[in-house]
Fold these 4 entries.
Entry 1:
Amino acid sequence: MSNTLNPTATIESSETTRSKWTSSDTTWMLSLYGTAIGAGVLFLPIKAGSGGLIPLLFVLFFSFPMAYLAHRGLCRFILAGSSNDGDITVTTEEFFGPTAGNVITFLYFLIIFPILLIYSVGLTNTTLSFMENQLHLISATAADSLALKSIVSLAIVSCLMLIINFGQEMTLKVMSYLVYPFICVLMFIAVWMSQYWSTAIFSTWSTEATVMGTLGNIWLIIPVMVFAFNHSPIISSLAVAKKKEDAGVAEQKCSRIIKYANILMVVTVMFFVVSCALALSPEQLSQAAEENLPILSYVANHFGTPFFSILAPIVAFVAMSKSFFGHYLGAKEGFDGLVTRGAKAMGKAPSVKTVNKITFVFIFITCWVIAILSPNVLDLIETLVGPIIASILFLLPMYAISRVPALAKYKGQVSNVFVTVLGLIAISAIVFSLVNMAIAG
């Protein structure tokens, strides 16, 4: 019977056509890839390699299922909402009420804002290291001085905020163009470091301090993995777009896009991570963590090749600047909302201009102060950013699957248990880190 006389066959044929891979899908795949691959990649090799061989193997084997299944779960959650324009906040309000929507909005701010602080610290330390080791303008003692750190961090944060204030749209466009050259350079660096590969990390197989120590390293690596592969901010946009473009096959399309994007990012990132781990010993990677430097700055100082020693810090600076600009928009939007809601609760209605000024001053001062104080970046990721991302990216969709009828078809899957367990481990890393700090103190 022809499709004309068989409506079911016509529908199936139409869905098959729409489920085919398109140029739009390629664009979305690269957008997810570009969102995830940024400055976070510069801190993953330090945590993955400093713990020895077993934690590195954990990252190698679990990165893809962890990133893919979690982001697929979040996308399914958003797609289940009844509104075609509904993002994560709208969908959360629909399923759990307005209070839950407000909580998610606040948690999103808590995810994005600390990342700005991380990049403020990273950019300041990278600049000071470059001035000391490559330009030889300052001594090691000067680089650690509070006065110089205050001046350098003020200059960096001022330049970033000035660019945002007067050329935000153009800046973001330029920065988005830098994503793919950044990846090419990162792969070049990974290949270049292959000449320094050694078997030092394999010796940790027999010299791991204790089983508990190894498990502890794996425990604390999970929040860093969550941070390094996170592209949750763009998942809402993907879900909303595919609801409109590919109604009926949106879930299938989104799952495929997320899968291919994660394959691409895991292959490239893990090649870089493994190359760093083989070129440097666990002790050297631990030193990079202690110096609070992104991996490229440490590598530039360690190998000392003239061309590379200049290239690596510049790449690190561009990567963190790009990520700073991208996250500023989210942090600004979130803080604007908090200020507006707080003012309304007090019976006031501030103008948009006033709210923008308050947000600008708050972010400027906070980033500057934190850059001066220079808290350890990996500690911030382990105890704050990674766990909060996990609460939304891993646990919210899994909770919704168990409670929301529209998601009931996803119940009973083994992947749900996997995502839930890793999400709980990532959040519990806060407790583990705080206990470790208390013991050390």
Note: The mean pLDDT is 84.
Entry 2:
Amino acid sequence: MAVEDLARAKSGIRLTVIAVATVPLLFLLSGLVIRYAAFASVSPDPSLAVYARAFCKWDCTWYVDISEQGYERFPIPGHSNVGRWGFFPLYPMLVAAVRTILPFSTIAIASVASLAFGYLSCLVAWPLMDKNMRAYVLYCAFLLSGPFSFYFATFLTEPLFVLVTSCLFLALKRSSYVAAGLSCALLSATRVVGVLAVFAIIIRMFEEHRAKGGSVIGFPRWLLGRPDLIIAILISPAGLFAYILYLYVTVGDGFAFVHVQRAFGRVTGNPLLFLWEGLSYHPRPGWQPTAPQWSALTAIVALALSAVLAVRRQFGAALFCAMALILPLTSNLASMVRYVVGLAPLTMLTAVLLSASKPTFVVVLIVFVATCYFMTVAWLGGYLALV
């Protein structure tokens, strides 16, 4: 009987592993089919080469240029006076490295890499959602075959950002602080808000200290007595610092990624004012919300979800997400939908909440897959709220 129980347990584990690996693969394939159908419905040329290029819009073109040409040293005759420095280097560097080995175009390599990162993000999310299969299915559907899955099918930083963020919080869950620090360093080289994850690392350290009976006052002393924790904190901003050093040496301005934002129309202001202006922007008659209204509503919902994370005592994730939303909100609402989709703790929380009941789970799953087609058409058509 003991042998039979052991065999049954091993069989159950095997089936779980197969399911965890297969679910995102199925959604990855279905997403490819749906997005291609949407592309073919609006494109006179349905070839795969045109398909990959058609999805490369807005920031994607900047990353292609960085991967192929690097960053500018002004002046460059015949080029735009808007520098590429506002776009961080890790993902373009990875694509450029692969391109030196494989004889494919930049956008083809990046598209495959983004899909692979999306798939891996799902696998990492499995233990983060406490092995909740319904929530896992929804999360995989959202990333790979959902309304915003086109972000994970082209050359944008969201696929890599979601994957590394997931790895960071998995490392924190397992108290692997050096691994979390390395993940934060990679995040800070992917997008500027990635460095903010260091606060989630420190909060997790504090929670562990308190769980062991330590006092609030004694936390700094406990921290100094753990070299691994100090190393984790110190290496967390390494990606950002390396980029600052590179810009200082090559351009003469280590903070060129901040200063160039003026050329993109980003001016520092009050986040609440930007939200109000977005919500109230409706110059045309009719009921359909405008792009600024969608962006403002998305930001408000995301901030509310950050509060829910805090209520569920996920303080590190809550603070990271709130700060990663507020920082871009200090300039304007541009790209807000994409930024929210790229915050893995928020999308995982949404999947968990929507999977609470089986009927809701089924309805949401159908909505995710069904809206993939229409949102892809909107992306290909250049709808501003999706920029």
Note: The chain has one domain: 2-386.
Entry 3:
Amino acid sequence: MTDSRLAALQAAAPDLRLKTEPGDLEHYGRDWTRRWTPDPLAIALPGSVAEVQAVMRWASAHAIKVVPSGGRTGLSGGAVAAHGELVLSLERMNKPLAFDRVDRTLTVQAGMPLEAVHNAARENGLEYPVDFAARGSCSIGGNIATNAGGIRVIRYGNTREWIAGLKVVTADGEVLDLNRALVKNSSGYDLRQLMIGSEGTLGVIVEATLRLTDPPPPTNVMLLALTSFEGLMEVFAAFRERLQLEAFEFFTDIALKHVLAHGAVKPFEEVHPYYVVTEFAIGDEAKEAAAMAAFEACMEAGWVADGVISQSDAQAQQLWRLREGITESLAPHVPYKNDVSVRISRMPAFLKETQALLGQAYPQFEVVWFGHIGDGNLHINVLKPAEMAQDQFVRECEQVTKLLAQALKAHEGSISAEHGIGLVKKPYLDSTRSPAEIALMRGVRRAMDPQALLNPGKLFDA
């Protein structure tokens, strides 16, 4: 705290919590990528919008770079502070603020964990439907900053669809109250939507008004074993035609191997190349009969080799663990993660091409594929061989990502489906966006943050 700049910040905001201990700097200065050595100036933990404003006014006056921080569960280096930036953590701003039963909205502070948002909505008889495995540790502000998707996009869409309004602090400390939960608002540019997915480069999201919906209907879960990826797409089409799908997630035999080694229960005696966990609405005999009819039709067509349907909530959770446990089971293997998307119709061609490409170019790597079939999102995890040094592994994986970027450009896909660009994907942004788009994005950034103070180096260099 001997730094005169921090003394000035503390004077400007006397009740602001500041941390400078080495352990705190390391903890708050990184995200789940673990690829950069944290080196922040300090950690600021505001407890109010006014304190966030004070931080940004101080940063503007002293030309201090600022990294907004939520749960830091990102996989693209978007919350890394490695060059003396101030980390602005919203974790203390973690409470619900208001519930409106008529508008069916919930206003919350940006540091509120997603699971707490779910609980607050349910306490009022409604649902915030965006969901994913990191629900207990990620924050709603971070979800908004990356337009997070998750396992129920097929039914409910991405985070973007559920944001009725945002309160944002700008780089110079002004507060923007965007859209104010209006359903219709044709009064010029929708800056709320611009903030969603901006990765903290345009402003600090401090509050969000979330749209809520009815609780989901009773559901059941089915695990399917499939013979081919082409067949998987046929199964998706068959189930989507007959059922109200809540989720449709796939993973490979390699992914299952790792989850089983991590303690999950083996679902089938035989090993199959692809698996699907699907959740769908039930509630009456007709819907249950439709589910069985879809399963039987896919069996008869030869697309499905085996299957099991949950008979209890406990068994449903057990089946979901086979999908949601993948990330945790891979963590000891230091995976290099790619998060890509293509149009749903192009997934079979893209997967076939990239599996062959990576198998030929990098036979020494074990590659784990899983993802969200209903929205064209594939997670490609390259596992580090135990004997390979980490820096060499990252260098070789960056060559893998270059190959993926080229394939994505050919298939008109995206290098980042739901984790943002951050530092990891920045070199490959031009595989997804045209030079004209990138130039416009840079222009927007300059207009809103002329000093390039907010989350510097993320998305693209200022």
Note: The chain has four domains: 4-92, 96-211, 219-327, 334-438.
Entry 4:
Amino acid sequence: MNEPQIPVAPSGLVGSAMADDAVAAPRSLLGLWQIVFLVISAAAPLTGMLGAVPPAISLGNGAGIPGAFVIAGAVLLVFSVGFASMSRHIVRAGAFYAYITAGVGRPLGMAGALVALLSYTCIQIALYGLFGFFGTVVLGPLLHSAMPWYAYTFACIAVVQVTGLRGIDLNSRLLGVLMCLEMGILLVLSIAIVIHHGGPSGLTLAPFAPKQVFSGHMGIAVMFALASFIGFEATAIYGKECRDPKVTVPRATYVSVTLILVFFAFVTWAIVCAWGLKDVVDAATKQPGDFWFIQSTKYLGGAMTTTMSLLLLSSIFASLLSFHNTIVRYIHALSVEGILPAKLDRLHAKYGSPHRASYLQTLTVALPVGLYVLAGADPFNTVFSCTSALGTIGIVMLQAVTSFSVVAYFRATKKDTRVWHAFVAPILGGLGLLWIGFVLIGNLDALSGSDSPIVRAFPWIVLAVALFGIALGFVLKRTRPDVYARFGQ
């Protein structure tokens, strides 16, 4: 196999109140681990490891990449303190924008809602391009087929739509199975490396030493590492569909971030040990597509390497389904609040899923993918790499604003007076995310694989969408005060 490097970025009642309650009604049976499966699947561990690690090593801090994942995870754990505290007081499907609204007002909350929709949709479009690309690489030879990438992409869009309609409970069980498989094969490879005492340098903790972690361009490495975590924040989005959300959502948030952190740190440490401290940068630079597969063939054999390549497709599919669920719940929440047409808040009579919002979500990704196809865009270098970069900037900045909004909310309401939970942790998390966001903007060419003027305009696109949201908020305040009053509530 000879894939290029993958800079991964890194889920019938009518009426507002009735539809909102319906999402929390008899079908609200999600437990802790079901939510964890949903959000870790969005992070797509296998896709993140195979895609983000080689460029993070070659462009970032080399053998110190496990430490970069620890730093990124630590920033998100600190962010999670305020995020989880907020989830105990506000249970809304539109978590980010609901928290921003509660903390700093409806106009900024409206900006958060539009940026969230833009960012998650971009990431999903990017992943569809990635699925099509690897469909040709992995399935093409197995099926002896020369189908174009977009044939695999549109087939995947159809499957995600059908599966998404079946309801969140089925989705969580399916994603749980796929998540266990993709994490399982990486763990098997890592354990095999440990059993065989690693490569030229043996098993060493040097990748966690400050000398390695802070070498090279540590900021770029942390940027790629954080992009691999995107999706964990969806825990709060399922609040109305789980048992005891004020307890389950905070626990699911901490469990998800901790599991991803420990898993990524261990697996990247093992692969660095397999290549050796001196050779790992050269291997990641010259053989980014085969970086993991070479070691898999060495330690597990050809059959398991083929299995890993197939699980890469299931990993991308799992992430797509999880993001589909996330975006659908944003659309549903906005329709309940009167921002989007009221008809979108209807739930499926049999499955209890927001089926009209689901169809709209599928349409919003199918049309851009179709335009990419008509333009002859490359599924990897354009559809995936560039579009995911735009989405990643939006999500990181949204997380930072959410952190500061948590501080504002608790200072105004006094509902949580704990210094660490309501002030220090959110401030530190917000500053850490802002730093990573500026690193992202300063290294867009590395994240996207392109230095075109369009790519350089991505931060301005996010800012323009945010400003439009703020303006829309003030317009609604004057023209539709009833809708404005209901927004984010």
Note: The chain is about 75% helix and 0% strand.
